Amino acid sequence: MGSENDEILAREVLAAERFGAADFIKSIVLQLASSEDSLDQTYTITIAGYSIQSDMFAKTIREHEGDKGLAGQAAKHALIEQENAIWTQHWVDRMWNAPSAEEFWRCLMIAKTSMDARVSNKTPESSCWALYTPVFRGARKSAIKDRNKERKKRLLGQEAPEPIFIKFIK
Question: Is residue 111 part of a domain?
Answer without folding.
Answer: yes
